[in-house]
Amino acid sequence: MTTVFVVGAGRFGRNYIKVLSGWKAAEPGQWPTVDILIVSRTQATTAQAMAAEIAAQPTCPFKQVIGVAVADEAQLRTALDHHQPDLTCIVARDRVRGDDIHAAYALPALDVGAVLCEKPFCRAGGEGAGLAQARALLDHPRADRFGLELPMFVMARAMFEDPRLESMLRQAKRIDYVWQKPTDENDLLDDLALHPWSLIPNTWQTNVEQVTPIPGGLEIGLRLQTDGPDRRVIPATIRLSAGGTFRGMRIDNQPFGFVFAEGRLQLRAYDAPWSALIGGEIPDPPYQCQLAVANPLAQHIQAVLNHHPLVDTHQTYRSQQFLEAVRGRP
């Protein structure tokens, strides 16, 4: 009997539930069977109503759906001790503590079973507190059961398995990343930065050179050093901003975009000016699909359930180092 616990079954948590609910119908026999699903909200009545709604669906694949209240670490530990989940998905966000709740919840959940954590592992304060939390994760006796959910890591891996795209990246004279969101709700750095960062191969060295405020956001200047015998230095930028929806990158003069469509994450090559794309001037630009990868969230869940997380504790620590380096820049 496999039990999965989704902690924080609100806006983002529903994506996890959707993936878990659709496994059997999508690819029978290809995914681990989940027998019991536990969902949490801060109020017990809300969680129980959600559980009843999921269980009532004609296509519900679970033998049992349970709703529990989790508003703090004490309630989480009670639920963990009682249900002993095989996998706990940490998707909660606290109105006061923000994403720091991820670290607070992940460590006790690891005492019981595997953990898949929404990014970031914790907020970047610039003073290194987040690194201390990440070090505690590295030292956990079950550290090998932890995964950080970075969807673009799945795309990056696919890009480097494509000989043409790998060559294009390695020979680039410059790489620019742009990640936008419609509103300035929540912190831009914590919310967005790890998406483009995780597109950079973890075997490359990434140095933060400068951080510059821009209208509605910030721009991070990077110095990337490739791996292998022909090491090269590539200047790069990551631009994070509110007020738009474009998410993509430019390798030299070739713009690309990342779009989730038809259940897959697509890499699209655009035939349009970069400035017009990031400015939202072309709502439906012409494109050619270069890659399409299966739902990254589903891949992350499957990998952690199989005890082979895609983004392990060492990569999680590196992600926190990057956030702290950016936050610590004047």
TrEMBL record:
Native organism is: Desulfatitalea alkaliphila
Q: Which Pfam families match?
A: GFO_IDH_MocA (PF01408)
One GO molecular function term of this record is: nucleotide binding
- Show the Gene3D superfamilies listed in the entry: NAD(P)-binding Rossmann-like Domain
Q: What is this protein's name?
A: Gfo/Idh/MocA family oxidoreductase
Q: Residue ranges of the Gfo/Idh/MocA-like oxidoreductase N-terminal domain?
A: 4-123
